[in-house]
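Below is how a single chain appears once it has passed through the pipeline. First comes the sequence as given, then the structure the pipeline wrote out for it. We keep one example in the README because the format questions we get most often are answered faster by looking than by reading.
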Amino acid sequence: MKYDFDACVDRKNTNSLKWDVKDNELPMWVADMDFQTAPEVREEIIKRAEHGIFGYSVVTDEWYDAYISWWKIRHNFEMNKDSLIFCTGVVPAISSIVRKLTTPAEKVLIQTPVYNIFFNCVLNNGREIIESPLLYDGKEYSVDFYDLEKKLSDPQTTLMILCNPHNPIGKIWDKETLGKIGELCKKYGVIVVSDEIHCDITDPGLDYFPFASVSDTCREISVTCIAPTKTFNLAGIQTAAVFASNGFLRHKVWRGLNTDEVAEPNAFAVDAAVAAFTRGGTWLDKLREYLFKNKKITAEFLLRELKEVRLVPSQATYLLWLDCSDFSDDSDKLSEFIRSKTGLYLSCGSVYGVSGKSFLRLNIACPKDRLIDGLLRLKQGVMEYIKQKKLT
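Resulting structure:
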């Protein structure tokens, strides 16, 4: 089957969060794609819709089998039915886990710059954020293990949220790094919640390493959140899963998800996930190739047209981290300026932690023509910003 990722689908007037913008604006911020999901998934959703009755739904054996098979074939990781729990989304799951596995005023560690909603999941539940900033050498990021151990050793630090692969920097953490994190967390009695929602969107030829697959230690001290939603552009369907091998942790998480009423599927959640994981593999491989080409287009454009902006090398996700430190240390002001002058709507790096204040995040999951439009707007906005800065 031929998949057309070049088609520009009009998303205006569809209640889209991303596209709720002015007519002249181009949103390249929030992490959903401007591609229709796989035809195989659409067919299943249409089939379910045509049935016409949308009562309460159950989680089927096919749902469990789809997850288990996908992770075994794609990621060489064995799961079993008893270790999986349905939930309505990764963010609801993380919030529920924070509430169930920690107590008010305890500390939850995150490695910044990182997905901004992690802050909400912690602070909104009355827990304290403890940041362990990643090391950045001007080209790539790595874990600051000295800082990480110091902060994990605090008796008040009881939970760590890991982003694997890491959003917004697009980093695939290697086994050695993940193993060290696991050993440190075990040493200090810290539970790891691993957000692996971006795991399938890696560059062609690359795979990620599930945190729980790295060692027995990592498996026993962790809870993993996974979903087809980022991979297949299904965020609005609200379908995800939590994996926990440790029986004690699994029971606590299961109780939390059910208490919070985020453990029951809507009428489309199960069928969409099953279709994605059983029939969507070929589409995903073509998507990854297309996204990789978009990354190359972006990298070549910046080197040729906009050397003032440096692209942090990305191995995963469709979100690119743009280093603007040569001319700005205020991403809020910069992103607002670019939007007001060109209509290009990007994410400001400051929302991902203080260390992101000189960065912007660019979503390249769109048709090539739309990407080029965005890059031209980026150039215009940056050059006008630099010009204005020189005049003041």
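The chain has 13 helices and 15 strands.

See the next section for the split statistics.
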